[in-house]
Amino acid sequence: MADASVRVARASDAPAVGLVQSVVWREAYAGVLAEEVLAQLEPRAFASVWRSSLGDAPSPDHLLLVACAGEQVVGFAAVAPSPDPDGGGASELLVLGVHPDARRQGHGSRLLNAAVDTARGRGADALTAWVLADDEHTQGFLAAAGLGADGASRERVVSEDGRTAREVRMSAGVTGPE
Q1: Would you say domain 4-125 falls under CATH 3.40.630.30?
Q2: How many CB atoms lie within 10 A of CB 122?
Q3: How far apart are CA 150 and CA 169, in angstroms?
Q4: Helix (H, G, I), strand (E, B) or coil at 95
Q5: What angle do CA 104, 110, 115 make, to 5 degrees?
Q6: Are strands 148-157 and 72-81 parallel, antiparallel or unpaired?
Q7: Distance, CA of 74 to CA of 165 (rounded, Å)
Q8: 31 or 89: whose pLDDT is higher?
Q9: Angle between helices 136-144 and 107-121 in degrees, nearest 10
Q10: Residue 61: which pLDDT band, with cuts at 50, 70 and 90?
Q11: Whole-prediction pTM
C-alpha cells in the first residue's frame, strides 16, 4: 500500500477533491436525484467551489482535509462550526468522501479521526454529521467510530422541483482526556 496520510487541503487540491466529490455524490444520490441532475454533478463545478472556498473560507474554523495515497488525493472531509440551533459548541462534519477505488484502505477512518482532532482543537464539545436516512453504509461507518443518531432529522431540498431527501443527524462527544 502506498504511503497514506491526511493533511489540510491546498488550493492545488481543488481539482482532485472535485473529482472525488463528483464520483462519491453520483453514487450516494443515485437513488435520490433524477439522472439529469446527477449528470450535473461535474468535477469542474465542485473544484471551482472548493478553490474559491480554500481561497476565502467562510470562517477560520472552516477546514478542508484531504486523504492521500502517496501524493494522490483519494478522499476529503470538511469541518465547520455547527449551524444547527441546538448545535451549541459542536463542529459539523459537512462532508466526508473517499473515491470508490481507494475504499477499505483506512482513508475514511483517518479523515474522520482528523475531523475529530480538528473539532477538539477548535474547542468543540461534539462532532455532528447529517447523513441520508437510507444510507446504511455511511451510518454504519460513523456508528462504528462512535457516532450515534441523536434523534434529529430534516428534509433537505435536493432538486429544483422541490424534491426532498430525509437526513438524520449523528453525533458524538469529542472532549476527553488531554
Answers
A1: yes
A2: 16
A3: 6
A4: strand
A5: 135
A6: unpaired
A7: 27
A8: 89
A9: 60
A10: confident
A11: 0.90
